[in-house]
């Protein structure tokens, strides 16, 4: 959530998740339930009439990665590819590094290092790298990976796909006010094997980096 009171700069005041259920009646879909999980909270004064005055909880709120019910892949190729893109963001923000490794079990995750180099990891090696690089606060990275501008090109006949998207990572800790810490682009390749779409490769391009000291050990290193 963003806010801009008169005469003040635009700022981030919160970030979280929606867990929704839907039903179809008489051919029309409607909401059955929405659960809002408020993960990160900034200065909500001027946004909420009775703003909570407490230190943010460090523990994860809402269902953990293990408690989430897997969603069946959509039949449409572009929708299935978008689901994979958003699943990465969900898993890494829930500190489900094994789940991230599983997404890239068959193709590398290619990222940048602080010194301008690059790395390519997949599967368990990627999960191990994330466990060693990402700082946790009571098991919670306190991040929100927001993915936008998703453009998908899928070749149903060949069983291949490409996607490009933007990302921005927000973080909040007791010592770090809620703020963007890094943004960039994902360039992804996908393949369909035995009817299921999966990542064939992800390349991460960092456009702007802010304060990563509370996110990555050493303040930089391997950026995800």
Could you please describe the fold and organization of this structure?
With 224 residues, this protein is an alpha+beta fold. It has a domain at 67-219: Nuclear Transport Factor 2, Chain: A. Helices cover 16% and strands 41% of the residues. It has helices at residues 77-93, 97-103, 123-133, and strands at residues 2-3, 11-12, 14-25, 28-41, 109-112, 118-121, 143-155, 160-171, 179-193, 196-209. A six-stranded mixed beta sheet has the order 6-5-10-9-8-7. A two-stranded antiparallel ribbon has the order 1-2. A two-stranded antiparallel sheet has the order 3-4. The chain is globular.
Order of strands across the main sheet: 6-5-10-9-8-7
Give the overall silhouette: globular
What is the helix tally? 3
What radius of gyration results from the CA coordinates?
18 Å
CATH topology of one domain: Nuclear Transport Factor 2, Chain: A
Largest sheet composition? 6 strands, mixed
| Share of helical residues | 10-25%
How does the helix and strand content classify structurally? alpha+beta
Quaternary structure classification:
single chain
Q: How much strand?
A: 35-45%
CATH class of one domain: Alpha Beta
Q: Could you tell me the number of beta strands?
A: 10
């Amino acid at each position: 959530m963003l806010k801009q009171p008169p005469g003040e700069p635009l700022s981030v005041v919160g970030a979280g998740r929606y867990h929704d259920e839907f039903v179809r009646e008489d051919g029309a879909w409607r909401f059955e339930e929405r659960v809002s999980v408020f993960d990160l909270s900034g200065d909500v004064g001027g946004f909420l009439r009775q703003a909570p005055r407490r230190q943010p909880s460090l523990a994860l709120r809402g269902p953990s990665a293990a408690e989430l019910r897997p969603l069946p892949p959509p039949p449409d190729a572009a929708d299935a590819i978008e689901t994979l893109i958003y699943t990465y963001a969900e898993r890494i923000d829930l500190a489900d590094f094994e789940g991230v490794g599983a997404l890239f079990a068959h193709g590398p995750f290619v990222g940048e290092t602080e010194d301008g180099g690059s790395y390519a990891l997949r599967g368990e090696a990627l999960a191990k790298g994330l466990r060693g690089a990402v700082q946790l606060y009571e098991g919670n990275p306190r991040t929100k990976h927001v993915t936008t501008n998703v453009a998908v090109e899928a070749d149903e006949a060949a069983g291949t796909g490409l996607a490009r998207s933007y990302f921005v990572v927000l973080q909040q800790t007791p010592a770090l006010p809620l703020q963007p810490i890094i943004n960039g682009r994902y360039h992804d390749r996908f393949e369909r094997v035995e009817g299921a779409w999966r990542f064939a490769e992800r390349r991460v391009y960092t456009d702007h980096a802010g304060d990563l000291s509370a996110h990555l050990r050493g303040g930089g290193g391997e950026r995800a």
